Amino acid sequence: MHWSNNRGSKTNVPCCVILAAGEGRRLAMPEKGPKPTHKVLGLSLGERTILACMAAGVSRFIVVLGSQAEAVRAHFAEVSMRRGCDVEFVVAADWHLGNGISALAAKDSILDDRFLLVMADHLVSTALIQQVLHTALCDREVCLAVDQNTTRVFDPDDATKVQFKHGTIECIGKHLDVWNAVDTGVFLATPALFDALADAAAQGQYTLSHGIEKLAEIGKARAVDVSGQLWLDVDTPDSIREAKRRLLGSLGKNGADGFISTHVNRRLSIPLSALLVRTPITPTQITLGSFFIALVGAAFFTVDQLWASIVAACLVQLSSVVDGCDGEVARLRHLATSHGAWLDTMLDRYADTAVVMAITLGYGAGHPGALPWLGGLAASTGFLLASYSTKEFALTHGVPYPNNVLNRLKRRDLRLLVMCCGGVVGYPYHAMVVMGLVTHALVVGILVNGWRLRSGDARPALVSSPHAFPRRRETADAGPDRRSPIPDPRAGSRGAA
Amino acid sequence: MHWSNNRGSKTNVPCCVILAAGEGRRLAMPEKGPKPTHKVLGLSLGERTILACMAAGVSRFIVVLGSQAEAVRAHFAEVSMRRGCDVEFVVAADWHLGNGISALAAKDSILDDRFLLVMADHLVSTALIQQVLHTALCDREVCLAVDQNTTRVFDPDDATKVQFKHGTIECIGKHLDVWNAVDTGVFLATPALFDALADAAAQGQYTLSHGIEKLAEIGKARAVDVSGQLWLDVDTPDSIREAKRRLLGSLGKNGADGFISTHVNRRLSIPLSALLVRTPITPTQITLGSFFIALVGAAFFTVDQLWASIVAACLVQLSSVVDGCDGEVARLRHLATSHGAWLDTMLDRYADTAVVMAITLGYGAGHPGALPWLGGLAASTGFLLASYSTKEFALTHGVPYPNNVLNRLKRRDLRLLVMCCGGVVGYPYHAMVVMGLVTHALVVGILVNGWRLRSGDARPALVSSPHAFPRRRETADAGPDRRSPIPDPRAGSRGAA
Question: How far is A104 from chain B (nearest CA, A)?
């Protein structure tokens, strides 16, 4: 069966062999179907593997079937239709002998001189795949991604150990005495791997490790250290829980969060997202829900009484927390779009404006005169300018405004929390005016600092040097891989402003 | 003399030979010094030539001296120091014989297999240079940029005519009977040009045209049609006036202006810029001046009387006009920076906010209650959201929001003019509220339309496809060459919002 699709067929990214032939006995949950179809936070392990590879540019997959072949085939066929990638199936008749024999079944489907090889039941991040794809490979070499940070390995007893030096594997196996890394199950291979596997099989050795051992003997087995990247061999109920923990832990690590997001909002929104991701609720519905909660909260602020102010404050803070969930659920489900980011960030601006207007109305009712309103005007314009300033900077200069104190203090999460704290004690207006004035001061600081930061660059813009950056604000990768020193100007967390 | 500088030395852009040896007798203004030093709107012809080439990536220049060599040398040396490019000088002893002999003097300075050749006294746009640089050149060929739109040629009698077919020059000369294009004086050449010039010189023919004729005889003279690009042979007092006219005409043609900018503001700001460009006033000073005028105008709006309202309206509209001058002067002087665009656009937001606050204060003084202030809040947030929305769109999606009616109606030029018209008749507040509500409606339209426009793209953002666009919002080119069908998201006119 061959699901055709045009996406990315012209890239130079190699195809990917997915081993989905194993039995998964250790998982011991036969009622849930074969292991690649097990769901972790809303998506099956198999779908997560495909999506991690697709986000790295892979568009053609060869899935090796074995145990429960028809159920696994049906699952991957459905994923390929829905996500738009080519999936070809091969059946490994003797899969039960070992995963080396399963890999051998893909031999005739490999047309290029390089291919990826991954396990259907491993959780891997796009960044890990990308790092492996960037490895230089010489003639007839095979490269294995290994993790040197062995203390972070979840189930070290069961892991395949590797001893390597200067990028070359010296030995590999489950029971090495001396080892310095662990096999992650991700390979970048030349077809020489098949010859090595066939050699090993001729000697009654049927695993991938045996094949790599053969290559190591002739110095053709390379290792690339992917320490710090998200990966997990999911083969026990415990490791499924660990997979969830690691996926959730990777959210909100893009370095663009403010103080409150990091220390308050994310701690509440991530558990909430873990619940939401199991429901059919879409990220867009969460965005709209957060906006609606903010509007209801704002309505309570117009009532100049303590109880209403407390209700309003709780609702607005709830909205601020839920505002983090849309992006989290989108990333967990690999559904993040520029589309969603656009709606989210625009509605945030309207929600801010509604809250300020409501607080000012509530306070102004009991305090006639121009002063309350001047405060409201200052706050609403300050909050909008805060969002505007750093985005204008990124757009004008083509680089993001640095995530410094000015930038972190002017964020939405902080100003909403301060206003809500004010609301709980009955002083939402005063908290709002203080935040409004502070925010104006921060924006002036950003204006001056932005001018100063670029003054080394004040020469005429003679050559319009093209500056490539990813087209979209959100990528669909859930891995902890967005901490580049200079983040993409649009890599901010969904709705962070 | 060799002015060293590191800029762009590693690019593949060829070096450029500038012929600055001629006498310029027809200009007949000996008191103003040699022709390449004649100023057109604040910059000499020689400096404009260098800047047009630098903006196209050229960083090394060979200037051929002849008539008044020391004055010309001193001028180009000063330009090279100030603008940061390599300039090497060669002296053509027999320059008076013809420009072919002058070009021959550069022979030993050409180290690469391709070079540009331009005239120091021609006005050329960066886009023209870029088009010529993109021409494919075969072995021992020379390519001449020609203009087929002969009706636009300023002084057809004096022009060198060209007859070409399928990109190959058949004949060239001042007095052809049959011709279909005009020589622009810009060449992309291989060193074969020098051999052709030497051949011609051996037969007593001393001009570049003679050399091209030799190449045409063996089918090695190519032509590239640059119709529509800005170029002008500046050799008479009349043509200096025409050069000014064309440079000014190229301002404000970037397709990003609103209705009012195009039909009102630019008509006032361009003549003003033509005056300002001759003074030492910098674009940044103009930006600050425009902001200051807006603040003074806003102050008058706080007085709830007709005379004050009229003064305020005039000042705010003046500020809106002057707001166009900073970018125009910067482009005319090749001084445009992202720096300047940043200050300009941020101060515009503050000026808008100040004007709205002042109008609301003035009206609120005579009309107690919450309603006047709600109107002010609506207007100030509407105006900020208008600027925010399209910039957020460009940043999130990596493409500019289309310049449709919604986008053109929500611009600053229009809302300021409407408020000022209201001010002149004594109703600035009402005009402001109407514009505020209209702007909010437009922003909602942009939000919905932006969501709809991208819904064909609503698939998960699987591959973060890199999208190259020029780093800076403004390039330093004054040519009419920014009308690409999909403008750069940051190519908006300085401060257009």
Answer: 29
Place of tokens 């960066």: B126
Under DSSP, is residue B89 helix (H, G, I), strand (E, B) or coil? strand
Q: Which range is least confidently modeled, A463-472, B60-69, B97-106?
A: A463-472
Q: In this predicted structure, what is the pLDDT of residue B34?
A: 87
Chain A residues touching B388 at Cβ < 8 A: 349, 384, 387-388, 391
**Polymer length in residues for chain A:** 497
What ipTM describes this predicted complex? 0.78
Pair B416, B292 in one domain: yes
Q: What is the CA radius of gyration of chain B?
A: 27
Q: Closest chain A residue to B489 measured between Cα atoms?
A: A395
Residue B433 is part of a domain; what is its CATH number? 1.20.120.1760
User: Is A202 within a domain?
Assistant: yes
> Cβ separation of A395 and B473 shorter than 8 Å?
yes
Nearest residue to B389 via CA among B441, B455, B320: B441
Domain that holds residue B38: 15-246
Least CA distance to A398: which residue of chain B? Answer: B471
Question: What tens digit of pLDDT does each residue of B427-438 get?
Answer: 999 999 999 999
| pLDDT at residue B462, as a whole number | 32
Q: Do both A163 and A214 map to the same domain? A: yes
- Per-residue pLDDT of B444-491, as tens digits, reads 999 998 888 765 444 333 333 333 333 333 333 333 333 333 333 333
Phi, psi of A451 (to 5 degrees): -70, -45
Q: Which tokens is B132 given? A: 């010529």
A168-173 and A142-147 strand pairing:
unpaired
Scored b (16 or more CB within 10 A) or e, A61-75 reads bbbbbbbbbeebbeb
Kindly tell me if the per-residue pLDDT of B51 is higher than 80: yes
Counted across chains A and B, CB pairs separated by less than 8 A come out at 241
Closest CA of chain A from B37, distance in Å: 21
Residue B177's contacts (CB-CB under 8 Å, 6 or more residues apart) are none
